[in-house]
Amino acid sequence: MAAKASLIVDAFNEMSTTALNIGDDDLILGLDYLLSLRDRANFPFISSNIYSAEYNKPIFEEYVIWNNNGFKVGIIGLAWSSGNYPESVIVQDPTISAKKVIAKIRNKVDLIIALTHMPLKVEAAFADSITGVDLFIGGHDGKRMIRPKLVNERGIYKAGNEGESLGIIELKLTDRRKNINEITAKLLNLRRVAINLSRLEESLRGKTREKIYEDNKQDAAKLEELKAKKLKISEEIRGYPNTASFSLLKLTHEYPSDEIIESFVNDYRSHFPIAAQEDEVEEELLFE
Q: Which domains can be identified in the chain, with CATH numbers?
């Protein structure tokens, strides 16, 4: 189990994860081990309602503010309080904690997304109890929802578990206040994609490019056109050897002035006056 948890963190590092919400399942191996994983992660672990039993303070960041294309998105994390937690943590009521953190960031952000770790029924009741969150992305129960569950016209989205699906949510906003005008969401079954890619790879094994395209006349014609262009370019550049060369000249006053070189030097000095002053000092030393 520890190896799997470590692999998940490594994978999330590779995916440039913005934030990870912590729930009871993440604490199965204990708080100390989870904190060691956090130290390895290049993304924040967040939770707005998981507190240290010893200090009665949040263990993880309560929220993050994600700057994306000029929009500031607040991301908060809530876990359900009825999960199986170690004695080292206290789980505050998610509704109370959510209201507190929303009040902290509402005027700092354009949108708020709640990452939740709750069964769907619990999450629906939680969503109904708060305002200020624009959409909910849930975990814990492994549900794979083709369509979101709407609570007060706000959607709860779940994409399954163990990386079986990729959830994509697109928001269309009406104005600078970022009021949401339209939300579209879809799930990509990654296992099915992997199976289809394997089948495609098997069907193409050993075939030439021409053989692959023989049943598609349009693509085959395009391929021939590209090959012809490549051949023409090759013929045009054939016979033009690389004639570039350079010579090292000793810098002395014996060489006559060159107008072109002087114009380059003067242009350089006009754009980089400090560097030009350094060059003049070096030049004086060189010609002493």
A: 2-194 (3.60.21.10), 208-237 (no CATH), 251-288 (no CATH)
Joined tokens for residue 188: 């990509």
- Identify which of 122, 157, 153 has the alpha carbon closest to the alpha carbon of residue 138: 157
How many residues are given for the chain? 288
Q: Are 48 and 62 in contact (CB under 8 A)?
A: yes
Please give the helix or strand (H or E) that residue 124 lies within, else none. helix 120-129
Number of neighbours of residue 58 by Cβ within 10 angstroms = 18
The answer to whether the beta carbons of residues 27 and 87 sit under 8 Å apart is no
Q: What is the chain's alpha carbon radius of gyration, rounded to the nearest angstrom?
A: 31
Structure tokens at 285: 């030393």
Q: What percentage of the chain reaches a pLDDT higher than 90?
A: 33
**Residue 108 vs residues 34, 63, 71, 105, 154: alpha-carbon distances, Å:** 30, 12, 11, 5, 21
Higher pLDDT, 58 or 165: 58
* Pairwise CA distance, residues 172 & 195, whole Å: 33
CB 46 within 8 A of CB 22: yes
Nearest to 112 by CA among 129, 128, 132, 127: 132
| 176-213 confidence digits (pLDDT tens) | 555 666 677 776 677 777 777 777 777 777 777 667 66
Q: Kindly report the pTM of this predicted structure.
A: 0.65
DSSP 148: P
Amino acid 64: pLDDT = 96
Residue 157 phi, psi dihedral angles, 5° rounding: -115, 135
Residue 113 has pLDDT above 90, yes or no: yes
